Amino acid sequence: MATYILISRLTDEGCATLTKNPDRIKEVNKDVEAMGGKVISQYVVLGQYDFINIVEAPNNETIGRISVQLASRGTVRIMTLPAIDVDTFIENLK
């Protein structure tokens, strides 16, 4: 499985949803799994973005589908970044 970093920002609708139902965060993690990914870790951050998620998925197509489907709900905007393990990166440089 490949690793991806999803950096997200809530929309006004997303803020309203979490205010009413904070557990929605964990429910979305189950949605990610149902679409073929796995949330490895998740952080709430302060500043320009609201969440950083480390997600595993089998390929770019799967993570692309996950990102688009989550964003299509209108509650979040996502930047998706592929991540390479440092040891793998070093090994590929040799």
Return the CATH architecture.
Answer: 2-Layer Sandwich
Gross geometry: globular
User: Taking all residues together, what is the mean pLDDT?
Assistant: 97
Strand content range: 25-35%
| Rg for CA atoms | 14 Å
Helix percent reads 40-55%
- CATH class bucket: Alpha Beta
User: What is the CATH superfamily classification?
Assistant: Lrp/AsnC effector binding domain/regulation of amino acid metabolism (RAM) domain
What does this molecule look like?
This protein is α+β, with helices and mostly antiparallel strands and 94 residues long. It has a single domain (2-93), classed as Alpha-Beta Plaits (2-Layer Sandwich). The chain is built from 4 helices and 4 strands, in the order E-H-H-E-E-H-E-H. It has helices at residues 12-20, 24-34, 60-71, 86-93, and strands at 2-10, 38-44, 51-57, 76-83. The chain has a 4-stranded antiparallel beta sheet with strand order 2-3-1-4. The longest helix has 12 residues, at 60-71. The two termini are 23 Å apart. 15% of the residues are buried. The mean pLDDT is 97.
Give the gist of this structure.
With 94 residues, this protein is an alpha+beta fold.
